[in-house]
Amino acid sequence: MIPWLIGDASFPPLSQALSEPNGLLCAGGDLTPQRIVDAYRQGIFPWFSAGEPILWWSPDPRMVLFPAEFRISRSLRRTLRAGRYEVRLDSAFPEVIQACAETPRTGQPGTWITREMQRAYRQLFELGIAHSVEVSVEGRLVGGLYGLAIGRMFYGESMFSRASDASKIAAAHLARFLEAQGFGMIDCQMNTPHLASLGAREIPRSGFLCRLHELVAMDAQAARWPADGASQPWK
C-alpha cells in the first residue's frame, strides 16, 4: 500500500517510494499549481492515466541531462545549421502540450497527458513556470517540447515530432538556451533510448536530489526567456 494524500497533506519521504513499480510514492491530492511546484521542488512528479487516481513518482535512478552534455550528431548539426526550421520559445504552449498528448507512444495505448493535466500545466504556463519550445516549417508546427523551470532547474515533461529530427531540434535549442542562462540540469524522469541518444544519463536519486536542491534555490529572475519568443539561429 502507498500513502494517500488528503487535503493539503504533505508528500511522504522519498525513502518510502516503491522499488516496484520504480518510484511510486503516493496517490491522491490535486493538480493545483502550488501542489505541482511543491512536488517538483522535492523531485516528485505526477504521472497517471485517465481513470486512475493522481499518482506521484520519484524513481531511482533518475534520468537527467546536463545542458553542456547535450549530444549533437553530425546529421543533426547539419540540419540545425541549414536553418530550414523556425524555432521559438513560449509562443504556442497550448498547441505543444496538445500535440504531445496526441502523439502515439510505443507500448502506451493512451496518454498520461490527460485533459486534467493539460489544464494544470496551462495554468503553470500562465504563471511563467511552464515553458515550451516550438519547431515550425512554413508556419506549420512540426515538433516541440514543454516542461517547468524552477530556479535554475528545468523539468522536461514531453516532446513530439511530426517531421524528421523536429523534437531533437527543439531539445538542442532548449539545451543551448538553458546552458546560456545558467541552468544546471534537465530532469528527464525515465530512461528511454531517445533521451540517451541526446546525452541523458541515469544518476542515483540521492545525487539527483542534492543537485536539485541547489538549483531550485537559485534566483530564477536572472534567467530570461525571450520576450518575443524567438530563438537564436544556430551557428
The CATH architecture designation of the largest domain is 3-Layer(aba) Sandwich
Mean pLDDT: 93
Shape descriptor: globular
Approximately how much beta-strand content do the residues carry? Answer: 15-25%
Structure summary, number of beta strands: 11
- Helix count equals 7
Fraction of residues in H or I helices: 25-40%
Q: What fold name stands as the CATH topology of the largest domain?
A: Aminopeptidase
Low-confidence stretches: none
- Terminal CA distance reads 53 Å
For the record, the count of structural domains works out to 2
- Strand order of the biggest β-sheet: 6-7-8-9-10-5-11
SSE blueprint:
Blueprint: E1 4-5, E2 24-28, H1 33-41, E3 45-46, E4 55-57, E5 62-65, H2 74-82, E6 86-89, H3 93-102, H4 115-126, E7 130-137, E8 140-150, E9 153-161, H5 166-180, E10 185-189, H6 193-197, E11 201-203, H7 205-216
Helix pairs in contact: 3-4
Account of the protein in words:
This protein is 31% helix and 24% strand. The chain is of the alpha+beta class and 235 residues long. The chain has two domains: 4-59, Alpha-Beta Plaits; 63-216, 3-Layer(aba) Sandwich (Aminopeptidase), CATH 3.40.630.70. Strands 6-7-8-9-10-5-11 form a seven-stranded mixed beta sheet, sandwiched between helices. Strands 1-2-4-3 form a four-stranded mixed beta sheet, covered by helices on one side. Strand 3 and strand 4 (55-57) form a beta hairpin. Helix 3 (93-102) packs antiparallel against helix 4 (115-126). The longest helix is centred in the C-terminal third of the chain and has 15 residues, at 166-180. It is globular, with a radius of gyration of 17 Å. The N and C termini lie far apart (53 Å). The mean pLDDT is 93.
